[in-house]
Amino acid sequence: MSRGRPPVPALVLAAGGGRRLGGRPKALIRYRGRPLVEHAVAVVRAGGCPDVTVVLGAEGDRVRATAHLPGCRLAANPDWAGGMGSSLRAGLAALAPEASAVLVMLVDTPGVTPAAVARLLAAHRAGAELAAAAYDGRRGHPVLIGARHFAEAAAGADGDAGARALLAAHAGEVVLVECADVAVPDDLDTPADLARWSAG
Fold first, then answer.
1. C-beta of residue 184 within 8 angstroms of C-beta of residue 116
2. Which of 97, 105, 110, 181 is most solvent-facing, going by the fewest CB within 10 Å?
């Protein structure tokens, strides 16, 4: 990290209801013996983000009571059913004001690794204000958003789009960080996805 600059915080979006997974909140889906939200927090911390904000929505009280999230800032998104955009807005609003950027991680991408997180942070240290993990050249998650884009990101976060509008508006500025050799971008949405990830 740059001298005198605090570490980039991570924002874990974990508010989804898991409708196609039997209505269980995605944060509490078990993966490798623990809830997905614990796995996601461990990944971003191991990748270099010690400050983590977790956005909770579906069965938020149950997630708080069940998941072990020491040291995390927990942000409530009462509008979680409206899609990922509302979670991104809630998370950005909860960040410490001195953050130079934020690393946005989705709770349902268990194939993202600390190495992928570390590569995005390195891109920011090299000057990138917008960066995204890429898989064989195709943009995926996680993404990194510089502080000067926070307001625009929040304004454009609608429905399930998340940061898509921001990244599209600044496509020429987005640094794609190839991660196919260290991570897998697939999300976990259906029972078949869960079975495949659990088997892996």
1. no
2. 97
Q: Which residues contact 196 (CB under 8 A, 6 or more apart)?
A: none
Phi, psi (degrees; rounded to nearest 5) at 178: -65, 125
* CB of 81 closer than 8 Å to CB of 17: yes
HEC per residue, the chain? CCCCCCCCCEEEEECCCCHHHCCCCHHHCEECCEEHHHHHHHHHHHHCCCCEEEEECCCHHHHHHHCCCCCCEEEECCCHHHCHHHHHHHHHHHCCCCCCEEEEEECCCCCCCHHHHHHHHHHHHCCCCEEEEEECCEEEEEEEEEHHHHHHHHHHCCCCCCCHHHHHHCHHHCEEEECCCCCCCCCCCCHHHHHHHHHC
Give tens-digit pLDDT for 125-179.
999 999 999 999 999 999 999 999 999 999 887 766 678 888 988 999 999 999 9
- How does 68-81 read in b/e, with b if 16+ C-beta sit within 10 Å? ebeebbbbebeebe
Backbone angles phi, psi at 129, to 5 degrees: -100, -20
Task: Look at the chain and count its residues.
Answer: 200
pTM: 0.92
For 133, phi then psi, to 5°, come to -65, 140
